[in-house]
Amino acid sequence: MSGPTKSEGVFELRFKTEKSFQHFGQQYLRCYGNLGLQGKLSAPDDAGQLTYTIGFQMDCGCQSVLGKFRKAYDKTFPTPGAAPAPGPDRDWTGQVLFCKVVPPAAAAPHRGFTHRIAKAANSTTTTLVADLARQPWLNGYALGNGTWIAA
Length: 151
Fold this sequence. Notes:
Layout: E1 6-15, H1 18-33, E2 39-41, E3 45-48, E4 51-58, H2 65-76, E5 92-102, E6 141-142, E7 147-148
Helix pairs in contact: 1-2
C-alpha cells in the first residue's frame, strides 16, 4: 500500500497590482498555514515584474498544487463582501514552472537470520540450516570458522 502522492518543484505567482504583490510578500506565512496539507513551501523569491517564484514539496500531485494554493490564498486574503473572483478575474495568476512526482521511500530490505551467523574470512561455502543442527549455539562456538571462544 502506498501513501499519498508527493510532488516537488517551482511555481510562479504573477500579481496584477503592486498592492496585492506587497501584501502577499508580507503575509505569505499565513497563507502557507492555511494550506491544510503536509509539505514545505519556500519563501517567495521576487522574480521582478510583480512576480514571485515559490519552491514546494507537497503531499499532492503536480496537477493539484495550484488548486490547493488557490484555496489557501482565498482563505487568507478573502475578497471583501464577495466570493473570490474566478480564474482570470483574480488579482494574480499562477503557473507551475517545474514539477516532478517524488517516488515513495523504499522500504528497508528484509534480512533473514543468516546475517547473524559468523563467517570465516576466507570461506567460499554456504552454510545451510540443515548443517547447523546439533551445533553448540550457547557454548561459545562460533559457526563458520570452527574456533572455540572461551566463555
